[in-house]
Write a structure and sequence with these properties.
The protein is of the alpha+beta class and 62 residues long. The protein has one domain. The protein has 2 helices and 3 strands, in the order E-E-H-H-E. The protein has a 3-stranded antiparallel beta sheet with strand order 2-1-3, covered by helices on one side. 13% of the residues are buried. This is DUF1059 domain-containing protein.
């Protein structure tokens, strides 16, 4: 089952609408890079764990 990270689920000043889907590891890496580059977060183990906990299963048909 593919996993999804959706920026719309987190408050941000930019009202980011990015959604990332793929394997769990792919999504965690891409979401951490996005969080650092776009939202100014520090890419560290704590951020990646927070992202991992927030992932949802991709809805069928997407």
């Amino acid at each position: 089952m593919r996993k999804v990270a959706d920026c719309r689920e987190f408050p941000s000043e930019s009202n980011c609408t990015l959604t990332i889907a793929g394997t769990e590891d792919e999504v965690v890496v891409a979401a951490a890079q996005h969080a650092q580059a776009v939202h100014g977060h520090t890419d560290n183990p704590e951020l990646r764990e927070e992202i991992r906990k927030s992932l949802k299963d991709e809805e069928p048909g997407r």
